[in-house]
Request: fold
Amino acid sequence: MEIEKKNDNSIINIRDLVFEYTREEDDGVVCAVDHVSIEVPRGSFTSIIGRNGSGKSTLAKNVNALLLPSGGSIIVDGYDTADESVLWEVRRRVGMVFQNPDNQLVSAVVEDDVAFGPENLGIPPDEIRTRIKDALNAVDMYEHRKMAPHLLSGGQKQRVAIAGVIAMRPAIIIFDEPTAMLDPQGRGEVMNILEKLHADGITVVLITHFMEETIGSDRIIIMDRGEIALDGTPREVFENTAEIEALGLRLPFAVEIAARLRARGVFVPQGLLSMRELADDLVARKEGAR
Reply:
């Protein structure tokens, strides 16, 4: 059953979400997500950060109905994830990329792997071939279409996994720590793809513990113990340096350097997020003082 959306511009509406599970070792109940409410605008790029056990991945799995709420609700593009009759519609709209690419690849040839999702959606063969080409081109892997996935690097495997999701044409793609197992080059490749998808109008939700990966997002949500600790634009969130450090999280490198300079009496304006911004500010003020 499709229901009326609360906000025409919101593609995800999370309302007072609770998710609980029972620990096997002692039958104790753990509240992994504790009364969280979030609206995600269509076409936006939202990053969710938190320590292990903060509830960020549990929240993501609730959005695409891999998990179902213990309380509250999630409405995805007008569909309630708790309604079993519309789970197919929810999962068609929400693609998900996980941290280990080896666990996401199912075929012996790259292009067959990308075709797997569209085939399960019942897409006609001619359309599938078009989607394979478009998706592999989107992640710069078309020239590897005949290769076996096990011969690829970790970053290349993750790009193929992303292509498999892109080929299903979801409105939303959730990336659950997609760079956690990659080297710096692989992380850069994946982040470039996220930025391209966002520019193309896809709603991107990134779960990560790499703070630098969040700088280009529209919004950052920091979770702690199942609750929202901070929520705002990158510049707004990273002004709360003491609170972020108290949550056991590392600041982006440029933000950390700027905070240390301020502590030593050097004037550095708030809101600088990248090393380029910090360097440009320091050079401009040095030249202005001449």
Observations:
- The mean pLDDT is 91.
- The CA atoms of residues 129 and 208 lie 32 Å apart.
- The chain has two domains: 10-235, 252-290.
- The beta strands are 10-22, 29-41, 45-49, 71-76, 79-80, 94-97, 172-176, 203-208, 219-224, 227-232.
